[in-house]
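Sorry, explain these tokens?

***
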Amino acid sequence: MAWQLQAAKQRFSELVERARTDGPQVVTKHGKEAVVVVSAEEYHRLRGEQPSLLEYLRCAPDLDALELDRDRDLGREVEL
């Protein structure tokens, strides 16, 4: 359903309830789509609930367990 901005402001509670029960609600301003109101559940689903960078780094594997020693071989000599 599309709501004009003035109607959305006047009937905000109804707009929110319809977003929760009927799905996304479009609000227009000067006849053009301005925003879409969605339920919190829909927002989280669309967003994908990704962990923060800090949480991601905390879940990273222990780098001390990896063998990160570099080979000391300098390669072959080449005449130019």
Observations:
- Residues 2-60 form a domain with the YefM-like fold fold (CATH 3.40.1620.10).
- Residues 20 and 66 are 48 Å apart (CA to CA).
- Strands lie at 2-4, 25-29, 32-37.
